[in-house]
Amino acid sequence: MWIGLTLLLPVVAILITALPVRAAVAGTAAALLAALNVAVAVTIAVQLAAHSPVTLVPGWLAIDSFGGIVLLLETFGALTALLFSVGYLKSPHISDRRRKRYLLWLHLFLLALYAIPLLNELALVWLALTLTTLFSVFLVSFERTPAALEAGWKYALLTTLGAALALLGMLLLYWALTRAGGSDFTWHGLTRAAGKMPVSIVSLAFLLMLVGFGTKAALIPFHAWLPDAYSQAPFPVCAMLSILESVAIPYVILRLVGTLGAVHGSHAPQWLLAFGLVSAGGAALLILQTHEYKRLFAYSTIENTGIILTAGAMTSSHVKQAALWQMIAHGFTKPVVFLAAGIMFMLVGKLRISEVRGVLSKSWVIGSVVMLAGLALAGAPPFAIFLSELAILKNGMMGGQAWVVMLLAAFMIVSFCAITYHLFRMVLGRTPEDSARDRPVIALACRWALVLALVPVLVLGWWMPPFLHHLITGGAAALGGTSP
């Protein structure tokens, strides 16, 4: 019942948006439905922490602990993004028709996003991921400027190419499944047949899927679409794209590794480890040299995705638990980062880091929130990302993978220094003489969205709800691994 409600609520929001009502009414209804969906996701998470996986349609719609983590992060991110969008859409240069169009595409995107952790059939998982591209391209290009249109179509072209490669990999994987005498193309069906599938076919299939889904997640070197897309998309859209790239897609990739890791000689964990390290290291260097804060936060998404995938590819079960902790910490942190950046943009009207100075002196509230969000993202103590990264390094060292730990530690240090350097320049720097700007009127919905998004960031560094701890333990079991 609860699983069905998770998918039904976005459908209701779509129908309300399609009715002849004002965008303000549709937006308010959407925010209320999103809040209800968070409550549903929490209910499912509590059930998963206490019982076995929750099933609605056997073989088709079901969710386990790992999926429960993903769904919780998706629904909470959607609530903050929708609430912020209610205020963002009040801008006078946006017509009511365009506002409703924005809400429609966002609801369709969220419907596809929610389906990813609920679907058991891999072909349908691929379809849901592909639909997220189809719907989000219109959100990326929402401003309709030449730069936004170019960014949207670059995003669509490259991620669609990645989807084609992933589909080819899935066809090969299904062929390997039939060669092993199986026909159930679900997560459980693949797990049962994994030991009998041809190694060479499985290896090629996984590599194609890793490249395909990695393009969608903007893993390095497949990240060419990301800087422009994030630079042009509205801030709440950036927050949801980050959830897609660092939560939903890693969920699919890590489940594949956990499933296909049983195929001896497939080298799936090794391939994932390589791509994860390259992405974490490359993103850290990109953060160091970026010139726009939206791109800065976009590159940090790549870095955190790389860390999650690297930890998920390591052999220790405790490292895999830390990887899920990192996913939770980043999944709750990134919405507040982009929403705080959105309000900072309303205050200063600039995107280039070199043109943003003295935010704290202009507004101590906005400056303080931007500082908190940036430090949480950088991995400063006592925030949750610091604790999860520390757990990855500690358990990785105990698991005997010292060289991986040392590389990750170096990348984390570079990223921390780069983010804090850019952050301090913007928040604490001197206000330029020619930067006088009337203080904007920030919509109440935007303020409440930011406050709501900030709550888990402040809480998780000090206390983790017991049901989240149980979800991490149960979710790590789906990834395999051994005790250190």
Structural description of this entry:
With 484 residues, the chain is mainly alpha-helical. It has 19 helices and 2 strands. It has helices spanning 2-18, 23-50, 65-88, 96-118, 122-140, 146-179, 187-193, 199-216, 226-232, 235-260, 268-289, 293-313, 317-348, 359-362, 364-378, 384-398, 402-428, 444-460, 466-477, and strands at residues 54-57, 61-63. A two-stranded antiparallel sheet has the order 1-2. The longest helix has 34 residues, at 146-179. The radius of gyration is 21 Å and the shape is globular. The mean pLDDT is 90.
Shape: globular
* N- and C-termini, Cα separation: 39 Å
In angstroms, what is the radius of gyration? 21 Å
What structural class do helix, strand and pairing data support?
A: mainly alpha
For the secondary structure, the number of strands is 2
Question: Spans of 5+ residues with little confidence (pLDDT < 50)?
Answer: none
**Beta-strand residue percentage:** under 5%
What is the count of helical runs?
A: 19
Written as H for each helix and E for each strand, in order along the chain, the element string is HHEEHHHHHHHHHHHHHHHHH
Mean pLDDT: 90
Give the spatial strand order of the biggest sheet: 1-2
Major pleated sheet: 2 strands, antiparallel
